Amino acid sequence: MPLDDGLPIFHLTPQPREPHITTLTFTVNGSQPTASYTKTRAPDVDATYSTTLHDAFVPDILYATVIATPEIVQQQSSSPGSPPPPAKVLLPKEFPLQLFNPDSTVIVTYNYSTFRGNFWEFSLPKTSFLSPTASRLDAASAAHLNALSHLPRATFRWRKEGGVLSKSMLRCSLVSPANLGNGPKKAGANEPDIPIATFEGLGDKKGMGDITIYQSNLKRVEVEDLKGLEVVLVLSAMAIGDMWFCPTSLMFNLTPASTSSPATAATVASPNGERRRTSSAPSIPPPAIATPTTQHPPHVTYPQTRRTSYPQHTPPPQQRDYQSRRAEEAARRAAQLKKEEEATLRMLAEEEARERQRREIQVERETQRLRMVYEREKAAVMQQQQQQQRPPVVGGGGGRLPAVGGGGGLKPIQEGKKVSSRKSFLGLRFGGSGGDAGARTGGVGGGKVRGGKLSKKGSSMF
Questions:
Q1: Which residue range(s) make up the domain with 112?
Q2: CA neighbours within 13 Å on the CB side: how many for 334?
Q3: Which of 190, 316, 387, 434 is most buried (CB neighbours < 10 A)?
Q4: Sign (positive/negative) of CA torsion 374, 378, 384, 388?
Q5: Whether pTM exceeds 0.90
Q6: 302-330: per-residue pLDDT in tens?
Q7: What is the pLDDT at residue 27?
Q8: Residue 394 CB: number of other CB atoms within 10 A?
Q9: Within this chain, do residues 271 and 166 fall inside the same structural domain, yes or no?
Q10: Over the stretch 27-78, which tens digit does the pLDDT of each residue have?
Q11: Strand blocks (E) in 46-91
C-alpha cells in the first residue's frame, strides 16, 4: 500500500505466464495507471543476474541494464574421502548499472556496518551534459567523455527499514555532505539526509511492489539529469530487492552444475577461513591429440557461448485493457467533437437565417414607410394643382341662395324648381319678380315689395 496516492508511484506488476517480465505502471494524484517501463530478467544465463529496463510501448528503447555475478566458493571436505560440502554463494559487493543515451555507468556498492546498518550507495554527477563545442576533436576525445568524472557528485543511499512489527521496505536518501565522512566535521554541520524514494514489497512472492518518488524533495537534489536519476532509482531498487531479498538460486539461475563447475568456482575457502585463488583449468581446453587412426588434422573444440535470448515483450492484460479503453475514449471524443461541430454549424446557419429574416422585415417596413410618404406628397401635389385650375365663383343670377322661412331654418333650394312668392295673412307679399333671391313679409297692412320697396296691395275690387 503506497504512502500517499498524490505522490508519483510506480506499481510493479509481473506477468502471470512470464514472471521474469514485470510491467511498471505510473500513477500520480490518483490518476489511471499508465505503463511506463518494462523490466526483463534473463532466466537462461547461468550464474548471472541480468536484467534490462525497456520502454513499455517501444521495446527497442533501452534505458539501462544490470549484470551481476555472484562469487561461488567451493569448500573443502573436512576428512579425506568424504564428499565435499555444497558450494557457498556470496552475493556481489557491488554491481554496475549501465545507462544509455547518454552512456554512463553507475556503481552501486553494498556496505555492511554494525553501527550504521547495511546500506547500498551510489553517486551521480551533478552536471551530466557538458557545454557544446564546435570542435570535432573535443567531441571524439576520451578526455571530453571522462570530464564528467571530475565534476561534483551527489551521493544516494538505500537503507532497509522495518522488518519486525512492520513490513520491510527500502528508503533512498540524498546524503548530506556532512554525513559522508570525508574530512573533519564542522560545528553545526550535522544536516539530516533528504528522503528521495521508497520501495515497498521486498521479497514479495508474487513480485508485487510500489516505488514512491518524493517529488517535493527533488527540488533540493542538484542533479541535472532527472530522467537518469529516475531510471537509476527504479532499476537499482528492483535489483537490490531481487538479489538480496529473493531466492538466490532463482535470481542468479544457479544449478547444481553451475555451482560445481570448475569454471565458476573462482575461489576456494581454506580451513582457516581465508580465500585463495584456485589453479583451475583454463577456460579453453587444449587441442585434442590425434590418434594413429585419425586421418584428419586435430580439431580444437572451444566452449560455445550461450546466447542470451530475451522473451518477446507482450503487453500485459492491464496494458491491453488500458489500450482498449484509450481507443474507446479516443473514438468517443472524436464522435463528441463531430457532434459539437455539427451543432455549431447548425447554430450558425440558424443565426444567419434569423439575421436575413430580420433584414428583410426592416427593408419591408422602410419600403412601406417610403410608399406612404410618397402617397401623401402625391395627394398634396394633386390637390394643389386642382385648386390652381378651378375658376373663381362670382355672385349673380348664376346661382340661388337658400330661402328664409317663417318657421326658422334654411331649406335647401332644389335646382330646376321655381321659387314662388308667399303671401302673408295680412295681404303682404314677399319677394320680387323674376329671379329675386326671395320675399319677406313686412309689418301690418297689405303691401308689396317691388324692387326692394314695400308697396300697398291693391284691392281686388279696385
A1: 9-129+145-182+190-277
A2: 6
A3: 316
A4: positive
A5: no
A6: 344 344 444 444 555 555 677 788 888 88
A7: 92
A8: 7
A9: yes
A10: 998 889 999 999 999 888 888 999 999 999 988 899 999 999 988 887 777 7
A11: 49-55, 62-68, 71-75, 88-90
